[in-house]
Specification:
Distance between the termini: 20 Å
Shape: elongated
Radius of gyration: 19 Å
Number of domains: 1
Oligomer: single chain
Number of helices: 5
Strand content: under 5%
Length: 174
């Protein structure tokens, strides 16, 4: 596979832009989780720098938790959307796609959380819940849905970019 020359700053912009979207999402997501069950962050996570505020703790943990998935998705986007001979996916399309992944992930999370709240039934195996109080059932179900949903929707987005590039490359050659 031939790699077309491109300024590294374009790749870095995509990488860091995708991570920034994921980081902002993670912080906002955890801010409503902490309001449903503060103990999710005060009891079931270690203290961060001795900070006592559950909201600040949630924000710091969210930023830390966003690094690996955000940078991994960013690198995957750079590779899938920009490398090779086929037409490249524009940065704004990549960022729009990542925003769509975030929206779909959060829609799934909110739906699962609402279902658990109404039914009082966990949707994942019981050993994945640190306790079985309703707030923890709701927040842990939301968090687990976020991890699984984010991975699934990200994978679908990457596949969609591959298909798009293949079709654009075929149209460009024909």
């Amino acid at each position: 596979m031939k790699i077309q020359k491109e300024r590294r700053s374009v790749s870095y912009t995509i990488l860091l832009g995708v991570w920034a979207i994921v980081a902002v999402y993670a912080v906002l997501h955890d801010q409503y989780i902490v309001r449903i069950a503060p103990e999710h962050f005060t009891v079931y996570h270690d203290s961060v720098f001795g900070i006592e505020s559950p909201e600040v703790t949630a924000a710091i943990l969210a930023l830390g938790a966003s690094v690996s998935p955000g940078l991994t998705l960013g690198m995957a986007c750079v590779f899938v959307a920009r490398w090779g001979r086929r037409p490249k996916v524009k940065r704004h399309s990549i960022f729009g796609g990542v925003l769509f992944v975030v929206i779909m992930t959060e829609t799934l999370c909110a739906s699962v959380g609402f279902y658990v709240y109404r039914s009082r039934i966990p949707v994942f195996p019981e050993f994945l819940y640190p306790d079985h109080s309703l707030p923890m059932l709701v927040t842990q179900s939301i968090q687990l849905s976020c991890y699984f949903g984010g991975a699934i929707f990200s994978g679908l987005f990457l596949m969609a970019m591959l298909v798009y590039r293949k079709r654009m490359g075929s149209a460009h050659l024909g």
